[in-house]
Amino acid sequence: MKEESDTVELQQQFFPISTFHAVMDKWSDLLDHDPNRNVYTADNDYHNFEFAYQLLADDVLILHQKTECHVKHRMELLPREEGKFYTLKCLLDQNKPARLINGDKHYDMHQGTIAFFSNYANYITELPAGYYEENLQIVISHNFIDEYINRQHISHPRMQRIINEPTDCMFVIPQWPAPVKAKVKQLAQTVLDSSSSAPNKLHLLTHISNTLDTLFRLQVSQNEETISPSALTQNVAHQVTAYLDERLSISFPGMDFLASTFGVSVSGLKRNFKQELNITPFQYYRQQQMQLARQKLEENDNSVSEVAYQLGFDNPSNFIRAFKGEFNITPGQYQKE
Length: 337
Prior knowledge:
Jelly Rolls; eight-stranded antiparallel beta sheet
């Protein structure tokens, strides 16, 4: 670590999950460790931070970190070109924008930004003085992907490349999808709560695999990056409906995510839908999803519960309520008729 003109420059290399405590011990003169709470802390002239962690064997490391910068920070993470593991980083909260630099690509990070990359990545984060951030990082082994993730759900070419090849590229989503947001916040709270009570590790592994599966299935468009406003026609509504039509078997991605993906404001997206279709994006999505549900129910080998899970509902009762709200009849009654 060095200081130049009120800027702190830091370098850190990726390290395997199995060496987590060994790496932390090397910084023991700068960090305080409370092993009973699974928390590391630091407080000095440059910054203070606290991160809670959960280490699940050699397959998963979860970090919930809070950082406050007293001066400008420029932090470089160096690649480790051996082994294969991945990081999902979610920005939960911040008070100022930050910048992420990956090769010739620059990303402005705001609350809700998600980045996915492997240990072959090389990136720099620039944090202004007075910056505050809360983030969740999930580091997972390649073995975890093989055992817990259905690769058929990984449809985006950049995401496939990160998982299948040694590459320094990153996958960045400016605004998290609503289902992923809910899962990430629940996971962050679980890690914080684990400082006072031991978590169910099998439950954590299941939660992480569900979060990743939801993210992979809720991919942004097949373009390499999110769509820019200049690439859009005036009729955003029809582009969004086409996007939703391909994703009726998963949860609604949320207005913030759709607006960010298609380069418009939330109010602009609502206004365009109202003008073109006289309904909201969610109403359109739910109507189309229930039409698909009705088709599936007409197939005799599908039970109500099976259709519910096929359409991405967490439990059948929510599906029954949505179906009845659309057709004024329960799915079970519909099948009988």
